[in-house]
Amino acid sequence: MLYKNFNPEQHPNFPKCPFKTLTGYQCPGCGSQRAIHYLANFKIANAFKENQLLVFSIPYLLTGYAFELIRKPSSRIFKLRKILFGKTAIYFILLVIFAFWFARNQ
Q1: Most buried of 54, 64, 66, 103, CB within 10 angstroms?
Q2: Does pLDDT of 61 surpass 80?
Q3: CA distance linking residue 50 with residue 36, whole number of Å
Q4: Total structural domains within the chain
């Protein structure tokens, strides 16, 4: 509710990114507070401009949450869960995060 009503860009009480403050470069999370504000107000394009990684990660995170809600997963669901959230997926996600971090500072 806080992020819906208050834009972090316009209020100094929201925390600033320490990485950006120290280095001048954006970390993968920079813009997340503003993106959450825009998402809470259904301004998807504005949220995407602030932090593309956050916007793209929401369906992935919701899928993971849905998998957790399934009490007795079928073998097909279990395999899909292993593909999307297994060890290889974790390495891939880390690669995406570092690529995003590098690309947004070019």
Answers
A1: 54
A2: yes
A3: 9
A4: 1
